[in-house]
Amino acid sequence: MSRIVACLAVGIALLFASPARAQDATCIKGSIPAGEWSEFDQRLKETGWDYKGGLQLQSAIGGVQLFVLDSEGRSVCEETANNTTSCRFRVDLTSVDMFNIKVDNTANRDGTAYKICAF
Which tens digit of pLDDT belongs to each residue from 8-43? Predict the structure, then answer.
């Protein structure tokens, strides 16, 4: 596991340490209503030379998307992530330290549980 992903996983776990959400070592679980999105900001610190990382979205229904945006609102993902693709990114953390992570369920008429895992 790369160092950036480890920081992300620890940051996600610390950020969501509440009774409404469950987490394990590298994943966060949540739920999202139909037609809504959920987002949170995550601050990362550089811990080494490895700037490669990624997030994988899992949801019970299709059409849910995962976005990871830098502080300027630009996507850092190589492609839009959903149940079949992941968000892989390479980030120079000397210039970017805050990310907005967004789970988008606006295209669906059903709510869903989701899980985001760092790799």
Answer: 444 444 343 333 344 455 788 999 999 999 998 876
pTM for this structure? 0.72
DSSP conformational letter for 70: -
Which single residue is written with the structure tokens 């776990």? 13
Q: Listing from the earlier edge strand, what are the strands of the sheet with 22-23?
A: 22-23, 27-32, 112-118, 52-59, 87-90
Domain that holds residue 67: 3-118
Token pair for 117: 């895992």
- CATH code of the domain covering residue 79: 2.60.120.380
Amino acid at 109: R
75-82 long-range contacts (CB < 8 A, ≥24 apart) are 81/55, 81/56, 81/57, 82/57
